Amino acid sequence: MSDAAAVPKLATTIHVTALDGIVNVNSLFTLAVFVGLAWNPNDPDNRLNTDSNCQAGKKTAEDLVAFHVYSFSSFLFSSLIALCLKQAIRLARSAHYRTIFSFDLAHVNRTALRVGYLVSAIGSFSGCVFLMLALINVVQIKLGTLSCGSSHSYGAVVPLLILVPSGLLIYVCTVFYAFTQ
Q1: What is the distance between the alpha carbons of residues 124 and 25, in angstroms, rounded to a whole number?
Q2: How far apart are CA 42 and CA 35, in angstroms?
């Protein structure tokens, strides 16, 4: 492995910390997915909408479960990739340095690390998108479909459609910046 393709020795701690952050955030989102799956969307006492013409149908409930599963799969995929990268860094440390005191030192292939970060970021990004779509379906089941024009439904969905994509845009820009450095 050439020195040009290796991550600087002291940077590996930063990479491990970033990977820990990915795993921790994905774990929180995965918990949210499980809570969402535990909720029974067909429970008639759990609806806040009383207008029978605006109640979401069976397709919305099916989409809700499907989006939760897609979200969970994406977050799990992203976390597994991040954990694999952490393990690769640890293996590189133990292969090059045999003492406990050299915790911060390892030679890691920069290209492999970048690709791993990118793949993990794609998993987190898609998990967020699927979780947002699941939440839109929760709103439609609880408050009424968007096609009915309910102000409560739109009041819940519009901030979701503004804040989540804004956060994802910042995330993508940050990942892109890190990928090019």
Answers
A1: 9
A2: 15
Which of these, 76, 64, 15, 8, lies nearest to 36 by C-alpha position?
64
Amino acid at 97: Y
Encoded tokens for 130: 């699927």
pTM: predicted TM-score of the whole model, two decimal places: 0.75
Q: Residues 52-68: pLDDT tens digits? A: 777 888 898 889 889 98
Name which of 64, 67, 86 is nearest 75 in CA terms: 67
CA–CA dist 117, 89 (Å, integer): 13
10 Å CB burial of residue 33 (0-12, 13-18, 19+) is: buried
* Residues 131-168: b if buried by 16+ CB within 10 A, e if exposed: bbbbbbbbbbbbbbbbebebeebbebbeeeeeebeeee
